[in-house]
Amino acid sequence: xxxxxxxxxxxxxxxxxxxxxxxxxxxxxxxxxxxxxxxxxxxxxxxxxxxxxxxxxxxxxxxxxxxxxxxxxxxxxxxxxxxxxxxxxxxxxxxxxxxxxxxxxxxxxxxxxxxxxxxxxxxxxxxxxxxxxxxxxxxxxxxxxxxxxxxxxxx
Length: 155
Prior knowledge:
The chain is mainly alpha-helical. Helices cover about 70% and strands about 0% of the residues. The chain contains four helices and no strands. Keywords: Membrane, Transmembrane, Transmembrane helix.
């Protein structure tokens, strides 16, 4: 027999709620921008991923890493396609503006809360992350470029 109790509350779907880690710290927007300057959009993705992870949002943390890797690949492809006489700032300035805008848009409110509570990482830590991301890109990119040069694909 069906349960037709008219006074029973309706069934609701359960919703997963992101729970921040206890004592978590976040990277500031300025740290994300400095990390991007030092280490390509890969650093942007990694730093924002760490912020999402600290906030308990693991799905967005994975997305941030994937988007950072895709953006880094696109920038490297653009470097290969454009002429050599294009100044480096043509690549750097849009990346920095994009990193700042994306960080403010998606994490700005939460970062401001953590900043007010003095629970943010030093920008020097973001510089270190940026340098490590730059090193990771070089470790992957140098063998590829050497292989293409030896194969005669690039000069």
